[in-house]
Design goal:
This protein is 37% helix and 14% strand. With 121 residues, the protein is an alpha/beta fold. It has one domain. α4 links the parallel β3 and β4. α1 crosses α5. The two termini are 17 Å apart. The relative contact order is 0.21. Bound molecules: iron/sulfur cluster.
């Protein structure tokens, strides 16, 4: 894998995944964990933000945020925007052509979504 960007200070790069129960939510969760494991972004808990237990938003707003949502219900996006966070990068899996309830959670799908997410800065 080509190193596209210096990741010094990578804790400034954060990913939230909707981590929903369906196939596409599951894929967002796996991809977010892979981004974390590869040192691309720090994974933060969307549930913590939803429960209003997260860090002060002023601190979060300074970070480069990527939100992964599975489908147009847009749970991740809505939670961030409810909290007044509007400056973030975004990837919705249905926009890549995947269908909710019809997508196998396998390495081929995970790898393709990961490739898209990894280069979003
Ligand atoms: S965005 Fe879609 S897939 Fe993700 S948690 Fe919400 S309903 Fe489920």
């Amino acid at each position: 894998m080509e190193n596209k960007t210096c990741l010094c200070g990578s804790t400034e790069y954060v990913v939230f995944s909707c981590s929903g129960a369906c196939d596409l939510g599951y894929v967002t969760d796996i991809v977010a964990r892979r981004l974390r494991d590869n040192g691309v972004r720090k994974m933060s808990c969307l549930a913590t933000l939803g429960a209003e237990l997260g860090k002060p938003h002023d601190e979060l707003k300074k970070k480069n945020i990527l939100v992964l949502d599975g489908c147009p219900v847009d749970c991740g996006k809505k939670i961030l925007e409810r909290e007044g966070i509007t400056d973030y990068k975004y990837l919705r899996l249905t926009d890549l052509g995947y269908k909710k309830g019809e997508t196998p959670v396998n390495e081929e799908v995970i790898g393709k979504v990961y490739e898209k997410a990894e280069v979003i800065f």
